[in-house]
Amino acid sequence: MRQFAKHRWWWFTISLTLPTFALAAGGRHVFAPGTVISAAAVNENFRGLDERLVALEARSAALVTYVRWGKTTCANDARTVYVGFAAGNHFELPGSGAGTLCLHDTPEWLSYDDANQNPAVIFGTEYQTSGYGVGLDSNHDSDARCVVCEVPRAVELMVPGRTSCPEGWTLEYNGYLMSHQMDESSSDWACVDAAPESGGSPANDNGHLWYPTEVECGALPCVSGGYVQNREVACAVCTK
Question: Within this chain, do residues 169 and 219 fall inside the same structural domain, yes or no?
Fold first, then answer.
């Protein structure tokens, strides 16, 4: 019985749920008054009840997902949901979506027409990281990967301008804030892992592009101990 000590009020729970569990199992161990039962039968009932309680507790735990941009593996206690390719709108085109997506690496289809009809279009993401002083020259022009991760926490937060998390939060990863170049079409901001993987073709195919983000002082104050003109911005992805 010691194994049930971790469940508060377990006797009360058992008294309410044991008949239900027994009926759900086909009435295997519903005993009439006065029936002499074996220790094995009692132990089997309790074992099944304990397994159900553990499953219910796990199911009620909070979970949150986040995208780890630039990687194909999750870190720490995170579970991999799926692996994919970073993708978005072409850097020269004004239409289609402005956000970056993590496209599953093994797609499935509904109805389709393989003719080129120029509707919304999505392109893979390439790194544009050579010569920016962030140590990612070898990733330049390679195709960006991504992975969707799940952790047993409730909320996710991306903190631009920091490599660490606020107090009470768990750091999932840190890296560099990236987006399209300033004179290209708009795109969202992505926190790309500080040590991204180089995947796919190294050819200069362009498409959706990731550049490091530099500070521009002015309305953004640059003071001692704060932001610095032209310095590349870091970021952190945190959960709680």
Answer: yes
- Which residues lie across from 68 on neighbouring strands? 147
Both structure tokens of 167? 């107090």
Could you tell me if 208 and 87 are in contact, meaning their C-beta atoms sit under 8 angstroms apart? yes
139: left (phi over 0), alpha (psi -120 to 50) or beta: alpha
pTM above the 0.85 mark?
no
Residue 4 lies in a domain: no
Does 131 reside within a domain? Answer: yes
What residue numbers bound the domain in which 90 lies?
64-239
CA 141 to CA 129: how far, in whole Å?
8
At 184-202, the pLDDT tens digits run 677 889 999 999 998 777 8
pLDDT in tens, 59-98: 657 899 999 999 999 998 999 999 999 999 877 767 666 7
The widest CA-to-CA distance across the chain, in whole angstroms, is 85
User: CA neighbours within 13 Å on the CB side: how many for 78?
Assistant: 27
| Contact residues for 229 (Cβ-Cβ < 8 A; gap 6+) | 215, 216, 217, 222
What is the number of other CB atoms lying within 10 angstroms of the CB of residue 69? 25
**Cβ-proximal residues to 126 (8 Å cutoff; 6+ apart), any chain:** 141, 142, 143, 144, 204, 205, 206, 207, 208, 209, 210
User: Which value, to the nearest 10 degrees, does the dihedral of the CA atoms of residues 100, 209, 120, 71 take?
Assistant: -40
